[in-house]
Amino acid sequence: MRPPYFLSIVELRALSDCAPNTLLTLSLDLGRTRQPIRRTEDALELPGGFQLPLPPRPYWAHPDKRTILIFRDCQWEKWRYFDPQTNAFYKPVFVAEGQPPTVEISGIKMHVTDTGGPLEDTRRKIQALGKVNGRVLDTCCGLGYTAMALGRIPTVFQVITFEKDKTMLRISRENPWSRDLFRSTTIQVLRGDVFQCLSGLPAGIFQAVLHDPPRFSLAPELYSVEFYREVFRVLRTGGRLYHYTGNPRKHRHKGLPERTLARLQEVGFSRARRGYRGVCARKG
Ligand SMILES: C[S@@+](CC[C@H](N)C(=O)[O-])C[C@H]1O[C@@H](n2cnc3c(N)ncnc32)[C@H](O)[C@@H]1O
């Protein structure tokens, strides 16, 4: 089966600027690879002769900077989903050329994009975690960018990551930038609720935990003493934790990093301190 094809504003602009029968070098996988493609009157001709129809005109006449088009079921459509079970709207969002997309779930962005995009956000989270090896837990998979970055560290032999949302898993399977998440033999993606699943894991099996939960108002249980106790239990002595908290500006969530530090100390973590947009701590 062919993978889905994608077009962002970058390719749509290139297509609208060129005359029919022009040969272009275009990416159909959001900038991961580029290939020579001939734009005919009404199609895109790929190497080998395979033809994709051009997207409908309205998509190019007023291209939206953030929207990504996906070619699926023989037609172009906006890459987005609504899940009546979670009552949430999922929109993969184009960030910048050369950057992986992020996702907005009901308008809330999954990665920090104001200071360099998801790649830089991921790099800084891993850096805040510090030197890691052995088996690592990435609590909340999302698009898998942190899990894949952890899996590329030569001293890490296994990354276990949880995702409870089936639509997020679907988007990750489609996302060209998440491919290694399902191909890497180092990474194990488990569908499930990390809050419920941690208690089923043996104590001390992880050398490090990267905790990148949704914002506090959406998943308060992932900021609870009960959850931190489980994280402490599954960490090996000497193991490290990085916990993204963001810096909520809403009055009632202000001081979240400070409250998180206090809760981590309450369950036994030491060396708790502020790290990149969150907090870091050690067990022992
Ligand atoms: C901020 S994102 C993680 C981003 C991820 N680090 C990355 O690199 O793309 C949080 C993710 O956690 C998932 N999630 C929320 N609650 C969860 C839970 N209890 N167990 C597992 N996953 C959860 C959400 O569906 C979302 O995909």
Instruction: Quickly give the structural class.
Output: alpha+beta
The name of the CATH topology of the largest domain is Rossmann fold
Largest sheet, strands/sense/barrel: 7 strands, mixed
Written as H for each helix and E for each strand, in order along the chain, the element string is: EHEEEEHEEEEEEHEHEHHEHEHEHEE
**What is the general shape?**
elongated
* Proportion of helical residues: 25-40%
Q: What number is the mean pLDDT? A: 94
Tally of structural domains? 2
What percentage of amino acids are in beta strands?
A: 25-35%
Please give the number of β-strands.
Answer: 18
Q: What is the CATH homology-level superfamily of the largest domain?
A: Vaccinia Virus protein VP39
Task: Please work out how many helical segments DSSP would assign.
Answer: 9
CATH architecture of the largest domain: 3-Layer(aba) Sandwich
Strand order of the largest sheet: 14-13-12-15-16-18-17
- CATH class group of the largest domain: Alpha Beta
Unreliable segments (pLDDT under 50, ≥5 consecutive)? none
